[in-house]
Every structure is written in structure tokens, then in C-alpha cells.
Amino acid sequence: MIWFVSGAGLGVLQMAVSLIRRPTTLEHPIQGFAATAVLGALIYGTILWMLANLVFG
After folding, report:
1. 11 three-class SS
2. Which residues contact 48 (CB under 8 A, 6 or more apart)?
3. For residues 24 and 7, is the Cβ–Cβ distance under 8 A?
4. Are 4 and 45 contacting, i.e. CB atoms less than 8 angstroms apart?
5. How far apart are CA 40 and CA 27, in angstroms?
6. Which in 5, 11, 12, 35 has the greatest CB count within 10 A?
7. Among 32, 47, 38, which residue's Cα sits nearest to residue 9?
8. Alpha-carbon distance 9 to 27, whole Å?
């Protein structure tokens, strides 16, 4: 579970860095951060979980 929470944080962090580098007008910022949290949990969380199983398992 911790891997998916970490992945959600990485997804939101990636969106925040992207917005700092390329400022745009945000029409729906809450939905955008929620979507990146979900996608980050799915993508980064799965990668972190697989790496943890490979290293520690």
C-alpha cells in the first residue's frame, strides 16, 4: 500500500513541476491533481512495488 501512496505523491509532484516549468491556465486544477494522483498511484506505485519485490523479495 505504501508503494501506491508514494506513487500518487510522485504523480502529483510531476504535475506540479510541469506546471512550474510551463505555466498554463488551469481550468480544473483539483480534478487535474486528483487525476495525476490516481495515475501516479497506478503507474509509479506498480513500478515501485515491482522493484521492491525484486530487491527485497
Report:
1. helix
2. 3, 6, 7
3. no
4. yes
5. 21
6. 11
7. 38
8. 22
What is the structure's pLDDT at 22?
81
Q: For the beta carbon of residue 21, count every other beta carbon within 10 angstroms.
A: 7
pLDDT tens by residue, 7-50: 898 888 888 888 888 877 667 888 888 888 898 899 999 999 99
DSSP 8-class letter at 22 = S
- Residue-level length of the chain: 57
C-alpha cell of 41?
498511484
Model pTM? Answer: 0.74
